[in-house]
Amino acid sequence: MDIQNKIALVTGGAHRVGKAIALALARSGAHVAITYNLSADDAQTTLAEIRQSGVKAAAFQCDQTQLGSIDALFAALRQEFDHLDILINSAAIMERQPALEVSPADWERVINTNLRGPFFIAQAAAKWMRESGQAGSIINLADLSALHPWPGYITHVISKSGLVAMTQTLALALAPTIRVNAIAPGTILKPDDWDETRWQHVVETLPLKRSGSTREVAEAVLFCLRSDFMTGQVIVLDGGRSLK
Fold first, then answer.
1. Which terminal residue of the chain has fewer beta carbons within 10 Å of its beta carbon, N or C?
2. Structural domain of residue 109, as residue ranges?
């Protein structure tokens, strides 16, 4: 796929990894829409940065745990753009929850944010792509825990493992016109509930002896978009952590 002048939607694009992806798409010539839930100020800052690349930019509030909010998102998108080429499912939450302490509310919050929401966003995007005759690309942001479980984050692990299965299944269901791939980052950004000592300990155990960057995740996204013969794959970016 030639990214120039394509129209992309990046969920959770206001900050962190989602922002890096949105800016990389803009620098590659794509027009970019982002979603945010509670980060309205960050979204406006990111919009201004996207527009510095001379492309069209828009931001939409969306609580992807609510199906009505997803419907409203796509109604608003259709008012702003006449088609969609690219979807990046980046919005997610990560919560430490030991298995025996998970409540039904915990389960619903994480699964609805990290798995159910991305599925219905991908479904709406794919319907729009097919309706407008577009050859599209969907990329889901999983993480290393989908392939190497972390027991202290059980709902997160289950949601991201489901996202990988969703990626592979949608790749078959939507072929040949829509490709679906995933990125599984490892040690990229320190989790909010980790202190610096714990983070540095993990970094020092990596074969590459450094953490990754949001820029490197964004570059992997661009690679997936440009690789027209790739679908249903998961690219792991973990500094070798999964080898140990």
1. C
2. 7-238
The parts of the chain modelled with pLDDT lower than 70 are: none
Alpha carbon of residue 216 to chain centroid:
14
Tell me the per-residue pLDDT of 31-78, one tens digit each, with 9 for 90 and over: 999 999 999 999 999 999 999 999 999 999 999 999 999 999 999 999
Does residue 244 fall inside a structural domain?
no
Non-local (6+) Cβ contacts of 81 within 8 A are: 7, 31, 33, 58
Three-state DSSP class for residue 183: strand
| CATH number, domain containing residue 111 | 3.40.50.720
Q: Is 240 left (phi over 0), alpha (psi -120 to 50) or beta?
A: left
Q: Rounded to two decimals, what is the model's pTM? A: 0.95
pLDDT score for 97: 87
- 149 is a domain residue: yes
Is residue 79 assigned to a domain?
A: yes
Catalytic residue (one of 160, 190, 209, 244): 160
Count of residues for the chain? 244
Tell me whether residue 2 is in a domain. no
Respond yes or no: is residue 160 known to be catalytic. yes
Q: What is the full DSSP assignment across 121-178?
A: HHHHHHHHHHHTT--EEEEEE--GGGTS--TTBHHHHHHHHHHHHHHHHHHHHHTTTE
